[in-house]
What does this fold into?
Amino acid sequence: MGRSESSDGVFARRAPASAADLDYQLMRVPAGGKLSGTILSHDLVCARVHYYQRRTTPHTDGECEACEHKTRLEWKGWVAVWSPQTRVIGILELTKRAMIPLEKWFDEHRTLRGAVVVVARIGRDINGKLFSTIHPGSIDRDLLPKSPNIEQLLARMWRRKGWEHIAPEPKQIIRMDATEGGVG
Ligand SMILES: [Zn+2]
It folds into this structure.
């Protein structure tokens, strides 16, 4: 009975690396709200999606269950953003309209990385119009954190058959908060 059961292998100075390290939040601008951040992505990632069965689901050519149920189809775009204050990396969701300033910026500067984006949703509707502005950032691009792989994160979130090559089974589970809003 000499050895205390509780102290052996119980305490550590640091929690080991875990899924929490790879936890990126999907950021959707709330009604009447505003989100901003320094862009980590080189360029936008876009996809046509449906809001179907209470979740966002990608449109797939050929057989698409959501299309068969005549669900509205729309383009969404995503960029990884970083907050210098909180050091949090998030995946910012944009509508087609809100992507336009970023597309123009990319055409002019050949990358989005390092620029600061501000996205605002006007009005009280959670699906209200989204407006974005983009301006030069003050942090050296090389000093910014690495951008997460958005395609892979979305593919994991959407978990579809045939997408295993996009989203290989992760060693650690990457969780994204599904803060998706409904239509109507
Ligand atoms: Zn579809």
